[in-house]
Specification:
The structure holds two protein chains of two kinds. Chain A is built from twelve helices and 14 strands. By secondary structure, chain A is of the alpha/beta class. Chain B is an all-alpha fold. Chain B has one domain. Chain B is about 75% helix and about 0% strand. In chain B, helix 2 crosses helix 7, helix 7 crosses helix 8 and helix 11 packs across helix 12. Classes of the chains: A alpha/beta, B mainly alpha. Chains A and B meet through helix 2, strand 6 and helix 3 of A and helix 1 and helix 5 of B. Bound molecules: adenosine-5'-triphosphate and magnesium ion (MG). Chain B: GO terms for molecular function: ABC-type transporter activity.
């Protein structure tokens, strides 16, 4: 893959596409981003995972020179986003959370204008626009005004517009939110192809599955802080590939059952506020057999048991030991 | 599918600043975008097309008899007045549209591109001169249809039209400033009207200053709009360029000298 080297920089910085240190952004008294560190290796796909309002968009906007950080610093391929903003802009493509294209113009006109702004000649711009429209399956709609575009088409056009200059680093803010499964898969293929061609991609998502599918490394952020960072495998080991949901007949044995679950699966468990259901991450489905046997031996009768894909909530649960939902307090009291 | 591989950052020619030539090119592209938008949504030209027609008809027939005895004699007085009022009012749109534009998603794209920071602003101001031109041509045409035959000749009329366009462009910097610092487009509209309404009506655009009370006369005489109206009248009616012409241009220069830097600074802070 694209190994970027720069002799002026130290060895450890040489192939970092993004290097953020202690980024902070405060809106009023809301610390939207509260000291975020990120290291994104060139040539990789990096996923930033977090719930609504975690600070994903704000972080991307600071990295993409759209927003000034209140504290901290960030470098893109070694260039400071504050001091060398204009250079950074030559190295990035940004597809924001909301379409950043001109609604009143056609797809072709949009792409031609962006190409012209990027220094392409009139003829080159036309050619580039045609090429991108074809690549993203928008040729038929090329001359229609965007007002009549579907969400998926707009999204694709937006990504196409970010690729005009073939930037080595591409920011994608929730690229697949609101897309149907087929369009989403196409988007994933496109992202993989971009990386194969040598780009670096930093994307945000609310879906663990998406990060799992695409990203080499993941940062989980919540309330403006990175709460976990690592490879997909690191993260999986901490949360399990799936999660166990268990409810028992006799509420009194709840804490006993929890202890058994934690001991047998060797993980932390939690209890949902409503209905006293035990949830726990699970790395190995085989362990369920052991668990069931142990529960039977302890005389605990089950009401319901299911194995599900872990939700984002559970990621947070296992990483931070607390739920993102507001019922955290309830849970703690219940456990006591 | 393109099979290109992406150039690594160190293989690229990276520039720390956009130079003057590129800034001009970027601004022209942004102006082209403005024109395309007008082409796509021609209904936004309603004001510049209807206002000259309706105002010319209305004011001429309402005031004509009272002020100049008859419509024919009033035309050389009123057409320059309406021209100035209409074209300058048109320049409010610059500020309103700038605000609307800056609130749209596409503005983020412009900000993330390695283009001159000033280009979207300069482009908007440039594209809007097309509106002034339309309004100018229509007002003179309306006058001609109603019987105005400027003594100054076609050349003088063209110069008068250009003077109004230049001055309106200068004034549009004021509204661009409001556009940049305001939070909503409707507030830009409101505050701009509040500034412009007294300026255009407390002038000699429709009624000779001599008929007004003393205090008002004093204001009408120092009002730069009055000087612009007089300059246009002198040009169209006798083909002469006088002191008022110079004052108008000086006024335009002063406005640009004050508002261009503060607008650009406010704009850059947001861009
Ligand atoms: N311009 C702004 N002014 C004030 N507050 C803001 C602004 N932008 C974001 N915020 C606040 O900052 C916090 C983080 O917002 P951000 O958009 O970065 O979250 P996000 O992780 O992208 O969420 P989502 O998944 O909903 O897109 C939120 O509480 C939001 O209300
Ligand atoms: Mg967001």
């Amino acid at each position: 893959m694209n190994q970027f080297t720069d002799k002026r920089k130290g060895m450890d910085h040489k192939d970092l596409a993004v290097e953020a240190r202690g980024l902070v952004k405060v809106f009023g008294d809301n610390r939207a981003v509260d000291g975020v560190d990120l290291n994104v290796r060139a040539g990789s796909i990096y996923g930033v995972l977090g719930p609504n309002g975690a600070g994903k968009t704000t972080t991307i906007r600071m990295l993409a020179t759209l927003l000034k950080a209140d504290a901290g610093s960030a470098k893109i391929f070694g260039y400071d986003v504050a001091k060398d903003a204009q250079i950074v802009r030559q190295l990035i493509g940004v597809t924001g959370q909301y379409a950043s294209v001109d609604e009143s113009l056609s797809a072709t006109e949009n792409l031609v204008i962006f190409s012209r702004l990027l220094g392409l000649s009139r003829a080159e711009s036309k050619r580039k626009a045609m090429e991108l429209l074809e690549e993203f399956g928008l040729t038929e709609a090329a001359r229609r005004p965007l007002k009549h575009f579907s969400g998926g088409m707009r999204r694709r056009l937006d990504l196409a517009a970010s690729l005009i200059a073939q930037p080595p680093l591409i920011f994608l803010d929730e690229p697949t939110t609101g897309l149907d499964p087929r369009t989403r898969n196409q988007m994933w293929d496109t992202i993989r192809r971009l990386v194969k061609e040598g780009s670096t991609v930093l994307l945000t998502t609310q879906y663990l599955q998406e990060a799992d599918e695409l990203a080499d490394r993941i940062a989980v952020i919540d309330h403006g802080r990175v709460v976990a960072e690592g490879t997909v495998n690191d993260l999986k080991e901490s949360i399990g590939t799936s999660s166990l949901h268990l409810s028992i007949q006799n509420e009194q044995s709840l804490s006993k059952a929890r202890l058994i679950v934690e001991r047998v699966l060797n993980v932390q468990s939690a209890v949902t506020a409503e209905g006293g259901k035990i949830t726990a991450p699970m790395a190995d489905a085989d362990r369920v057999t052991d668990l069931l046997i142990t529960l039977r031996e302890a005389g605990i009768q089950l009401e319901e048991l299911s194995v599900q894909k872990p939700t984002l909530d559970e990621v947070f649960l296992s990483i931070t030991g607390q739920n993102t939902a507001s019922n955290t307090q309830v849970k703690k009291e219940e456990l006591a | 599918m393109s099979s290109t591989t992406i150039k690594a950052p160190h293989e690229r020619k990276l520039r720390r600043k956009t130079n003057f030539r590129e800034s001009v090119k970027n601004s022209l592209t942004m102006a082209y975008r403005g024109l395309l938008k007008i082409k796509r949504t021609p209904e936004q030209l309603f004001d510049v097309t209807l206002q000259p027609i309706i105002f010319t008809l209305m004011f001429t027939y309402i005031f004509g008899g009272a002020i100049s005895g008859n419509v024919q004699n009033y035309l050389p007085v009123i057409i320059p007045g309406i021209l100035v009022q209409t074209v300058i009012t048109t320049s409010i749109v610059t500020g309103v549209q700038l605000r609307e534009d800056m609130d749209k998603g596409v503005f983020d794209r412009f900000k993330s591109l390695p283009i001159a920071r000033i280009a979207p602003l300069a482009g908007a101001l440039l594209a809007d001169t097309i509106r002034y031109t339309i309004a100018t041509v229509l007002t003179f045409s309306m006058g001609y249809v109603m019987g105005l035959r400027p003594e100054g000749g076609l050349g003088a009329v063209v110069v008068a039209g250009l003077l109004v366009i230049v001055c309106s462009w200068a004034i549009s910097w004021i509204f661009a400033f409001f556009g940049v610092i305001s939070r909503t487009a409707s507030s830009v509209q409101g505050i701009s009207m509040l500034v412009l309404f007294p300026l255009t009506f407390l002038s000699n655009a429709f009624v000779p200053a001599e008929t007004m009370p003393k205090l008002l006369q004093w204001f009408v005489k120092i009002n730069p709009i009055s000087h612009l109206v007089t300059a246009v009248r002198e040009l169209t009616n006798s083909g002469t360029v006088g002191w008022d012409f110079t004052i108008s241009l000086i006024g335009a220069t002063v406005i640009v000298a004050i508002f261009a830097p503060i607008t650009v600074r406010a704009y850059m802070r947001r861009a």
